[in-house]
From TrEMBL:
It comes from Clostridium chromiireducens. Residues 4-320 form the NADH:flavin oxidoreductase/NADH oxidase N-terminal domain. The lineage of its organism: Bacteria, Bacillati, Bacillota, Clostridia, Eubacteriales. It comes from the Bacteria. Pfam families: Oxidored_FMN (PF00724). It is an enzyme of class 1 (oxidoreductase). Gene3D superfamilies: Aldolase class I. GO terms for molecular function: FMN binding; NADP binding; NADPH dehydrogenase activity. Its EC number is 1.-.-.-. The keyword Oxidoreductase applies. Its cofactor is FMN. Keywords: Flavoprotein, FMN, NADP, Oxidoreductase. This is NADH oxidase.
């Protein structure tokens, strides 16, 4: 586990190993504010030994919410609660970025926005997005910029723009969703690059700003193109996941050993000069080490593995079995069933 437990830096942020807890909304927020349960949860995650946590998708305005229990960063009075999370995580010698998010057409707003009219039907939700006016675009970009300013004030080590999984930035980037005829349609990355430029004006140069980007948006060629453009425009890292779920064209080399998202991360890493994170289905420390060595990515995200065993990184360091996600068709952590069988097995074996 030589590479998995080696140090890594992004700008001045020193991360003690290559294990990242990726953003995972579990839903303890109260009116967008941090609850004591949120703080306890991040304490447990930080004690688990990962070098970096990316805090769950935290909304930049109340119109962009995905659920009523989601955390928010759209008002200054939310900073204090967020700072409690940051201080708790730092006290455990772990670094923390915050993922900032707007759901666009996929959210719970009664009149959701989208780059252009789009009929969304997925995950039990259906809505038709209203085309954003130029004023809407400027206003939402300003919400992201103000959210980043608050994140800096709260003491986060950096931010991650939620730019994938079909949320607002992904809706702009994916040309099957974004049919605008103006400059935000002709150059879909304009929306996020202007956000990045705005954030640079309100935070110091050393503040880390990365993005979770869809590798297939809709194709891998698009994913690589956006990765290169963002690298050129000064983004600090790329956390490569999936794009707009129902609007992707996923083709990977036959017999590829890891997940499609890891494939995209490997391809993108070859084309950029900045750190790349890989995610999805990395379900043992041996595979994590192998991926770091074979694909040259810099950091691995361990999601459901850490939901099953929050001590995943400590177990890996001690050479113990970390437990395994069983990839149930209905995952408890998405509220689709009552139990997590992977956790039941892990807890039974580790009494
Ligand atoms: C309960 C749950 C909540 C999630 N919430 C987010 C989120 O807030 N933001 C995000 O980018 N991805 C989210 N994800 C996706 C994970 O970050 C990760 O990409 C995914 O679980 C695949 O990694 P894994 O195979 O290691 O679990 C979530 C996943 C789960 C299981
Ligand atoms: S419920 Fe199933 S899919 Fe979800 S984390 Fe547990 S074992 Fe994995």
């Amino acid at each position: 586990m030589k590479r998995l437990f080696s140090e890594f830096s992004i700008k001045d942020v020193k991360i003690k190993n290559r294990i990242c807890v990726p953003p995972m909304v579990i839903g303890f927020g109260q009116d967008g504010h941090v609850s004591p349960e949120n703080v306890d949860r991040y304490k447990e995650l930080a004690q688990g030994g990962a070098g970096l946590i990316i805090q769950e998708a935290t909304c930049v305005n109340s119109d962009g919410l995905l659920s009523v229990k989601q955390l928010g960063i759209w008002k200054d009075d939310q900073i204090e609660g967020l700072k409690n999370i940051v201080d708790t995580v730092h006290a455990e010698n772990c670094k923390i970025f915050i993922q900032i998010h707007h759901a666009g057409v996929t959210g719970i707003s009664e009149n959701p926005i989208c780059p252009s009219p789009y009929e969304y039907n997925n995950f039990g939700r259906s809505a038709v997005g209203r085309e954003m006016t130029y004023e809407d675009i400027k206003s939402v970009q300003n919400d992201y910029i103000e959210a980043a300013r608050r994140a800096y004030e709260a003491g986060y080590d950096g931010i991650e723009l939620h730019g994938c999984h079909g949320y607002l930035i992904s809706q702009f980037l994916n040309k099957r969703v974004n049919k605008r005829t103006d400059e935000y349609g002709a150059t879909p990355e304009k929306f996020v690059i202007e956000i990045l430029d705005g954030i640079r004006k309100v935070t110091p140069a050393e503040f880390v700003v990365g993005i979770r980007l869809g590798g297939f948006e809709p194709t891998i060629e698009d994913g690589i193109h956006y990765a290169k453009v963002l690298d050129k425009n000064g983004i600090d890292f790329l956390d490569v996941s999936y794009g707009f779920f129902s609007e992707q064209e996923i083709h990977v080399s036959e017999g590829y050993k890891y997940s499609n998202a890891v494939y995209a991360a490997e391809k993108i890493k070859k084309e950029v000069s900045i750190p790349v994170f890989a995610v999805n289905g990395i379900n043992s420390s041996e595979i994590a080490e192998e991926i770091l060595n074979e694909t040259n990515v810099d950091i691995v995200d361990i999601g459901k593995g850490i939901l099953i065993n929050p001590d995943w990184a400590n177990y890996a360091k001690e050479g113990k079995d970390t437990g395994k996600c069983l990839n149930c068709t209905k995952c408890m952590w998405f509220g689709q069933s009552k139990v997590c069988p992977g956790k039941v097995i892990f807890d039974k074996n580790n009494k």
